[in-house]
Structures are given as C-alpha cells and as structure tokens.
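Lab meeting, item 3. Inverse folding demo.
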C-alpha cells in the first residue's frame, strides 16, 4: 500500500496547518477527524470487499508514521480506534471470529475507543480496579474510572474491562459499551502539556452495560497466553511505536531545514549545515532513528505473518515501544538544539513536537516494565529468597 495514496500531500498539509490551532485552543481535531473518516482511514483494517482499505498492520504502521509527522495528536487519537480494529484483524488472521463484529461495525461507521487504562494500575491488562458485575442474561455492568480515553468527543463504542469477584476466583471481563447507552460520563479534564488535540479525557463508568453478545473474554487475573492479551499488546505497542517514530522523522526533517537556513556569523555567514558539531548532532539523530525502522517493520510483518515467537513476543513488543519512544524523544531534543532559540517560541512546530513526544513516557510499557519484561525473558523470574 502506498501511504501517499491514502494520505496525499494536500490532505496532510491541511492537517498540519490545523495542528497549532487545536493545540493552542486545547480542542479536539474535529476537521481532521471528518476528513480522515471521509477518506476511509478509520476503515483501514476492514477488508476491501467490505468497503475498507484492506490494510495489513505493516501498512498501517507506515500510514501512522506519515500522519504523525503532520499532526501527532491526531495520529495518537486515531490510533486508539485502529488498535481495536487491528486486534480484530489479528483475531481473523488466526481463525478467531469473536471480534468480527468490530470490523463490521467499523465498516458501518462506528468509532472505537480504548477504555483500558486505570490510574495506579501498573498491571495494565492483567488486573483491574474497575468492578465488572454479572447480570442474569450474561451481560455485565462496569463501574470504575478509565484514564487517557482518546477520541472522547466522537467514540460510539468503547472496549473496556473490569474484575468480577462474585465467583470463587476473580475473573477479568472484557467487553464493549455503547455511547448511546447510559452509565458513563466524561470529565472535562484534558488540559495537558502535549498531545492536546487527542482529548483523551477521563471516563467515569457508573454501571455502564456491555450486552452478553459484546462480552468477548473472561480471563483469570494475572499473566495469560490468551489471544486477546497478545492481540491488544501487539497492536497497541506497534502502532504506538509508529506514531512516535513519525514524530521523530518530522523532527529530523526540521533539523535539516534549520541547519541549511541558519547562518553562522562566526564562520563568515556560512550555513550551519557546514558546522562539524551540527553535522554530528544531525547524523547522530539519524543513526538512532535508522535503528528503529527495521525493528518496527519486522515486528509488524511478523504479527501479520502469524509468526510464533511464543513468550518472547512480550519482550520484543515492550522493547520496541521503549526504543521507539525514547529514540523519538532524543531525536526531537537534538532537533531543538540544532534549530536554535527560535524553537523555544510557541510559534515553532518543534516546540509542539517537543511537548507531544513527552507523552511517550506515560504509555505502557513504561521503561521499568519494559526492562523487567526483557530481563525476565533472558534471566528468568526473580526467585523468592524465602523459597515460597
């Protein structure tokens, strides 16, 4: 798939031109959303015969890099819809039809939000502080607080989860609620340093209902090899890495432009592109970014190809997310240094990228979790000194 055919330059320039205003006003990217919807972007993972783009995960990685280079917050917001539709595609590729309805509803225009994150829950998918209460007909009602729920103004479906403690053993329940049903509300609390246009408001669940036919899994608390856990982790980490890689690619472009544009009085008015220190900084950033791209592409291809890495998948995915977000932050900081003091002004695109890229610190897997996952894969779990 040619990313420029799906996201042509003219569309991206309109999206880029609106990004400063959304950021300044702390406003949802509504015009971007409408144009991307009209272009079929939210149907990227839907099969062509069903009206979608028929994209693979590797295709969407390239698309999200391109979109993020124009407007990071727009790309991050759209990412959350693409995560659920991407997970449904992972299921289909592995012969599991339990999420087919996600692709069917996406084809019909429904918009999916990712209502998973909870403040203080560092177990992420493996435990929950939200209550999932079973109902006689097999439905569940969810009560709790979900944070960082992107697309707050426009989602129509939200994938969420909670813990059912009514049985002999607690179970984690995953299901989908609808916007047009009661039992939920947003807080108007998204006033952040960066990624402002994503409008990832806190969502309060107050008995929000997921019907029985929208309950997709009930799983034990703790690590689990179920396809849902793998699918969410795989698509979330990979597409997140794509967004931050796109930010880094744009920052490097701006650094090169600045090096050619800025002149050095000390060196007789020659452009900074001839300064050895500036050249080293740009080359160092490019080398770091170049190391992320093959890793990102290989992991996306392996997910598409149903490659069986077994338990090694989680270390690979955690490592990808960590490397991509940390590299992006380093590249943006290098671009700020190369760009000079002008990048410190609010009118500079670089200062917005600098604020946006910092959000990568807070997405799972965080640096501590990523290193712990990789260490366990290589060294095994830490033994209990008491032998229990």
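The presenter then showed the designed sequence:
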């Amino acid at each position: 798939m040619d990313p420029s055919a799906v996201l042509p330059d003219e569309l991206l320039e309109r999206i880029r031109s609106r990004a400063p205003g959304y950021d300044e006003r702390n406003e949802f990217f509504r015009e971007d959303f409408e144009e991307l919807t009209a272009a079929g972007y939210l149907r990227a993972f839907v099969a062509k015969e069903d009206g979608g783009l028929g994209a693979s995960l590797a295709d969407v990685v390239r698309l999200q890099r391109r979109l993020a280079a124009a407007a990071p917050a727009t790309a991050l917001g759209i990412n959350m819809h693409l995560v659920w539709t991407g997970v449904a595609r992972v299921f289909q590729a592995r012969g599991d039809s339990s999420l087919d309805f996600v692709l069917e509803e996406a084809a019909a225009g429904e918009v999916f939000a990712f209502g998973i994150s909870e403040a203080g829950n560092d177990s992420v998918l493996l435990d929950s502080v939200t209550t999932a209460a079973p109902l006689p007909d097999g439905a569940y009602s969810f009560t709790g607080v979900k944070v960082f729920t992107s697309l707050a103004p426009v989602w129509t479906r939200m994938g969420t989860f909670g813990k059912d403690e009514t049985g002999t053993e607690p179970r984690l329940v995953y299901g989908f609620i609808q916007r047009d049903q009661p039992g939920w509300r947003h807080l108007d609390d998204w006033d952040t340093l960066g990624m402002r246009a994503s409008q990832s408001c806190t969502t309060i669940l107050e008995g929000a209902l997921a019907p029985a036919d929208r309950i997709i899994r009930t799983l034990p608390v703790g690590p689990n090899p179920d396809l849902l856990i793998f699918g969410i982790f795989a698509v979330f980490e990979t597409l997140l890495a794509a967004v931050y890689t796109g930010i880094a690619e744009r920052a490097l472009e701006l650094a090169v432009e600045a090096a050619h544009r800025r002149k050095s009085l000390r060196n007789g008015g020659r452009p900074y592109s001839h300064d050895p220190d500036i050249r080293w900084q740009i080359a160092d950033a490019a080398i770091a970014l170049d190391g992320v791209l093959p890793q990102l592409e290989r992991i996306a291809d392996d997910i598409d190809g149903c490659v069986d890495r077994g338990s090694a998948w989680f270390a690979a995915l955690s490592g990808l997310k960590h490397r991509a977000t940390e590299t992006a932050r380093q590249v943006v900081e290098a671009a700020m240094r190369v760009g000079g003091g002008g990048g410190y002004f609010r009118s500079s695109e670089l200062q917005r990228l600098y604020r946006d890229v910092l959000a990568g610190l807070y997405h799972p897997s965080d640096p501590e979790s990523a290193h712990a996952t990789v260490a366990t894969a290589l060294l095994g779990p830490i033994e209990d000194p008491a032998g229990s």
